[in-house]
Amino acid sequence: MIITDWRPYVRGALRGFVSVELGNGLVLLDCKVFSGRDGLYCQLPDKPSLKDGELQRDRDGNVIYYPTVRPAKREIGDKFSSAVLKLLREKYPNALAVDTSGGGAWSRQAAGSPQQHRGRGRA
After folding, report:
1. Global pTM?
2. The dihedral of CA 48, 95, 84, 28: what is its sign?
3. Where are the domains positioned within the chain?
4. CA nearest neighbour of 36 among 64, 15, 18
5. How far apart are CA 69 and CA 28, in angstroms?
6. Residue with the larger pLDDT of the pair 59 and 98
7. If you write DSSP's letter for every residue of the chain in order, what string do you get?
8. Closest Cα partner for 98 from 3, 40, 16, 4?
């Protein structure tokens, strides 16, 4: 597995977006990295729900998202998440040490600009 892109973006629990090339050559674009009560985790790509061309929202006004890829078993998803976070930390040691005061701003302080994160970090 290879980290092909990292774009830090701090907003709420979201820490940024990572793209991953799997061993079979498939690339998962824009997996989200979150900080939760049990620590960091990586979520597989998803897409916003649309109805009649309009974004669907929950009762609180948040956009509803649906997965585009899912693991067959929870253990597989947990293993994927752990592997991605390990590779991310190895390739960009400060990637997850971002300034959380930005409130949605792209955080370049810890990890550099998005263009600097493109490349092939192999593991």
Report:
1. 0.74
2. positive
3. 2-99
4. 15
5. 9
6. 59
7. -EEEEEEEEEETTEEEEEEEE-TTS-EEEEEEEEEETTEEEEEPPEEE-EETTEE-B-TTSPBPEEESS--SSHHHHHHHHHHHHHHHHHH-TTTT---GGGSS----TTT--GGGG-S-EE-
8. 16
Q: What is the dihedral of CA 30, 35, 37, 40, to 10 degrees?
A: 80
Per residue in 5-48, pLDDT (tens digit) is 999 999 989 999 999 999 999 999 999 999 988 899 999 999 99
What's the CA gap between 56 and 76, in Å, rounded? 29
The β-bridge relationship of strands 46-48 and 65-67 is antiparallel
Tokens of 25: 């050559």
Rounded CA separation 100/107 (Å): 8
Q: Could you say which architecture CATH assigns to the domain 2-99? A: 2-Layer Sandwich (3.30)
Cα–Cα dist 106/17, whole Å:
11
Q: Is the dihedral of CA 112, 12, 96, 91 positive or negative?
A: negative
Mean pLDDT of 91-103: 67
